[in-house]
Structures are given as structure tokens and as C-alpha cells.
Amino acid sequence: MNDTQTTEEKAAGIAAKLRAHDNILVAAHADPDGDAIGATSAMGWLLQALGKRFALYNVSGLPSNYAWIGMPQPLLSSLDAVPFTPELLVTLDCGDMRRLGPESGRLAMLPAIHLDHHLGNPHEALPDCWVAPDVAATGQLVAEVARAAGMPLSGGLAEGVALALTFDTGSFSFGNTDAAVFRLMAELMDAGLDFATLRERMDSQWSLAKSALWGRLTGKVDVRRDGRLMLCVIRREDLEACGAVSEDLEGFVEHLRRHRHVKLAATLREDAPARCKLSLRSFGAVDARAPALLFGGGGHKNAAGATIYEPVDAVLEKVVAAVCDVVDGDG
Description:
single chain, alpha/beta, inorganic pyrophosphatase (n-terminal core), 39% helix
């Protein structure tokens, strides 16, 4: 999208593109979080309201802790299950096509619309890419497109947008929670959104396995720099010992950041023998994105991450040095 365009013009351009196409495939990044799932749901409801033939795709499927979210169609985990030949791809919350999963090569051949709010999206210069780092969540962009398409922000569409906003603002506690977020939430609630029920569904998803895992990991947290840094290495054996799955880790790095005096929290999760995931959360001036960039990742100033294609033990020392440098730089 042209940087000189207003938000309304950008949204209108995307809405027109959706109206002009059919056989649309909607995809978000693998291991989807609340913004990815919420934006996917909202976009699905928008396309249904527009009378489009579409499919929703995520290589990881629908995480069990989001099984309650309303989807206009099942979330497919294989491209072979898509019942048509896609003519247009809509990617959501995805700054790198590789994050769509092993089938991303097939998707990269399609004409595409990209909606994202992460700095450094390589598609930013493309005419049908709307990257808006100043918004709190990708779901916010879907709401703008729906508004431009003349669709009410109600029902399942509103629920998806609200999930995206609530998740990516840390329940309205992160620094990206601005007046626009509250105005949009008020609009959703005025249109009938039951926010109390949404929060109940989001919050009441814990299992005994998740409780056991968090207890185990809390006992092995590495506290450094006079308590300003918390780092936890999460190995596959930790999950196996508790009967837990990777989605049970959602929120753990934020949990560490909430400890008194902590300026930066980091988790390094072993996903495979030669692949690990770095997650970073910070507060205020501390730049969580800086160490993520060193490992080929990205994100936002106070919430960032990277997938590192090396064994945990091979990168641990470098990760520790990088996060310590950031905290030391904050004084």
C-alpha cells in the first residue's frame, strides 16, 4: 500500500480487492496466537457476509484453547483439503511467508493480500500489502476492511476482532493499548459483543497439565541483572514430563514479565533437535525486538520473537548475551 494513503483509503482498496475475487484462501502463521486466530475468524465472517467462496487455513490447526471461537468454516490444516483452486491468498499477522508452514512455497505462487502489523514485513512495498505497525493487532485491520466494505462489526466478526485486540494488548495492559483500541472495543460492545463471556472463554482454558508445566518451569527460571531479567529454557522433556503441549506455554513469558522489577522476560523453547523459539517481552523503553532481530526474528518493541534453526544448547550462550546487553543498556 502507498504510504500516502489514509487508513480509510487503504481499507477501501483491500475491500475492493476482496469484492473482485472469489475462491479466496485465508491463512495465518503457524502456531497461531490470539491475534492470528481472531483475525482469521473475523476475515472468514467478512468473506461470508460478502458472499464469497473461501477457505480458512492454518498448518497447525485450531489450538484447543481457542476451540470456543466461532468460525464460519472449519480451520483446515492441509492445503489438499481446500475444496477449490485458490485464486487469491489473504495472509494475516504473518511477517514472513515461511511462517505459514511447510506448504508456504505453494502459497507464495498465489496473488495475495497481506494484512500485518509487524515491523520489517518483506511484503510491505507490494501494492496489496497493508502493514501498520502503529496498530495493536492485525484484527484491527480486518475491522477497518469490514467497515470499508459496509459490514457491521457485530456477531462472529466482532468476537474475532475482540479476541485479536485483547490478546495482542495483553488484556489492554501493553504499551500498544491506545485510545483507538478502546474506541474500537466500545464500538464492538455497542454492537452487541458480550465481552465478559469472551474473557471467561479466554481465561478458563487451563488444564492440570498446564498448571504442572508452569510450576515446573517457574522452578528453573534464571534470574539475572538484579532481578531485571528473567530467562527460562524450555525443553521438550519439560512438556513430556507434564503431559503438556506447546500451546500450554501461551502466556508464560508474559507471566515472567509481570514479576516485580523485571524489565525483560525471555523464553527459549526447544521445538525440535535443531529448532527453537525465542520469545521476548519487555516494559517501557527496553527494546525486546533488538535481540529478536539478531536471530532473524522481529516483532514489536515490547513483544518480539524469533525461530532459530539450531539446537538450544548451541545458541543459549548467544541468547543470554543478547538479552543481557539489552537490559544493561537500559541502565
